């Protein structure tokens, strides 16, 4: 029986709730510049305040909106670091991996595989005769977009991974002695937190299955690999490619991307292609690359928490 990585001693779950509240408060503080900018812009234009996330994202210049939106995660990450460093007396490395240091080769491998696959799928889609993708490339605006995205999106995705696949995974481990419990709960919460995304507004709540499934995929590769390096790389590639390659009126990232999808949002099997084909394929590839074994134990087995005081397990 192996410990859930990062856990050093049992802590009351209340501390994890308090830590989560602090991160949420930091996130709200980080949203202030975005909210104030929207308020000033709408007052200057004489229009009413936007009521949906989609409307909010389209009030200002898209690059400015993206910058202010991502700034929220920078402030939230600062709050998260304070929680880890001063409340839990842990390091980010202990939250992220069971290895002695973060394995950047794993991060780069996952990033490269998903970024390349996304690029190939996008090019094939653009070349298709019935494509709804149109050329949207504006060099000056795209350059600014790229600078913002490369600098800030990894912070946004890293915060989500540290919070869900690390911190909350460890927190829920205090409530139930088996690994399936934190895996299931973190995936569910991760999915439900996307409920205000424009895609959900356009297509309905069924889209949340995609987000919950993505959380489950990220949780599986984290537990099987005893670290979140693969999840960090995948998530960064996914959001970065989403911001740079394709935009649409129903996506959370309203950007000056290279392509714009003009199709009216509609539910289709293609939406769930990652859940049905791509994610299982990636799990298989990673399992061969890193020689994963003991699947039942790592995904559903008992959680053993080492006690550093007397070198026993709890």
TrEMBL record:
Residues 143-241 form the CAAX prenyl protease 2/Lysostaphin resistance protein A-like domain. The chain crosses the membrane at residues 15-44, 64-86, 107-128, 140-159, 180-196, 202-224, 236-259, 271-290. The keyword Transcription regulation does not apply. One of its GO terms (molecular function) is endopeptidase activity. InterPro entries: Rce1/LyrA-like_dom (IPR003675). GO terms for biological process: CAAX-box protein maturation. It comes from the Bacteria. Keywords: Membrane, Transmembrane, Transmembrane helix. Pfam families: Rce1-like (PF02517). This is CAAX prenyl protease 2/Lysostaphin resistance protein A-like domain-containing protein. It comes from Flavobacterium fontis.
